[in-house]
């Protein structure tokens, strides 16, 4: 009878350790997927000054748009921004970049400029990577949250302080219908 109790205790301990390790793995995946977003945001952050300098030469009187892009970029450089604030500023920056790209229609020389076209393509690719990274983050957070909310790992999660994570959501502006006018 003693061997059965010891065997059962060993099994319980091994299950506890295994469950804890799985929770750690999921939490690390959430952090890694956030880091992927951060990498793409940094890439965009580094590309913006080159884009702004290229546009400045062609659109000297479009200072408002350029200033907005630079100001939002500089806000992202502030230390200790939480994830929610960082994503809000990045969403605003995405809108400002769309306005900047709209300038190329008003300036045919800018439209033909190879540097501008190359930078625009790089930023477009970066925006796509940011969108993909956001999707990956939300998917990873969903799996993590499911893991910490289901039996039996929910017991381990509460004992060891594994908390629910928030997913990234679209802003109210992004949820509005797109108006196409000809």
Explain this structure to me?
The chain is an all-alpha fold and 182 residues long. The chain has one domain (2-20, 27-169). Helices cover 81% and strands 0% of the residues. The chain has 7 helices and no strands. It has helices at 2-58, 63-76, 83-106, 108-112, 114-149, 153-160, 172-175. Helix 2 (63-76) runs antiparallel to helix 3. The protein is rod-shaped and about 90 Å long.
Mean pLDDT level: 83
Question: What is the chain-wise order of helices and strands?
Answer: HHHHHHH
Biggest sheet: strands, sense, closure? Answer: none
Number of strands: 0
**Helix percent band:** over 70%
Question: What is the percentage of strand-forming residues?
Answer: under 5%
**Compute the gyration radius: what is it?**
24 Å
Residue runs with pLDDT of under 50 for 5 or more positions: none
Q: Output the number of helix runs.
A: 7
Oligomerization? single chain
* Structural domain count: 1
Helix-strand makeup class: mainly alpha
Termini Cα gap: 83 Å
Described by the principal axes of the CA atoms, the overall outline is rod-shaped
């Amino acid at each position: 009878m003693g061997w059965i109790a010891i065997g059962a205790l060993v099994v319980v301990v091994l299950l506890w350790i295994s469950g804890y390790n799985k929770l750690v793995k999921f939490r690390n995946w959430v952090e890694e997927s956030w880091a992927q977003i951060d990498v793409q945001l940094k890439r965009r952050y580094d590309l913006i000054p080159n884009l702004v300098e290229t546009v400045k030469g062609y659109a000297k009187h479009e200072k408002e748009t350029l200033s907005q892009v630079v100001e939002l970029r500089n806000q992202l450089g502030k230390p200790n921004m939480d994830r929610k604030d960082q994503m809000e500023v990045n969403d605003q920056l995405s809108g400002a970049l769309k306005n900047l790209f709209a300038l190329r229609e008003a300036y045919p020389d800018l439209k033909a400029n190879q540097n501008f076209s190359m930078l625009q393509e790089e930023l477009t690719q970066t925006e796509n990577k940011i969108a993909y990274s956001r999707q990956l983050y939300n998917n990873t957070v969903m799996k993590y949250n499911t893991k910490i909310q289901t039996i039996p790992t929910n017991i381990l999660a509460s004992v060891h302080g594994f908390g629910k994570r928030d997913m990234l959501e679209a802003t109210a502006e992004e949820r509005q219908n797109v108006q196409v006018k000809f």
